Amino acid sequence: MSGRAIVATFGLTHIALAVPDVERAFRFYEQIFGMVAVYRRPGFIQAQTPGRRDVLVLEESPSALPAPAVLLLEGGGAGFP
Hints:
By secondary structure, the protein is mainly beta. The chain is 15% helix and 38% strand.
């Protein structure tokens, strides 16, 4: 480690992903992590992991790259190859 202080968190508590197909993306996270949809509207799903503080927002964007190619964090963002 480079000597920088580590910020303690409860995890990545709020992640938003722009995805080309919100229903397909939700099925993936539902099957892998057990995510449960807590709010839905057309092109938008907010999900949580049962018993945890993780929140995943999936927002449909036809020009979005398939996840995890683009990850938008609340207040910032990061790209992945």
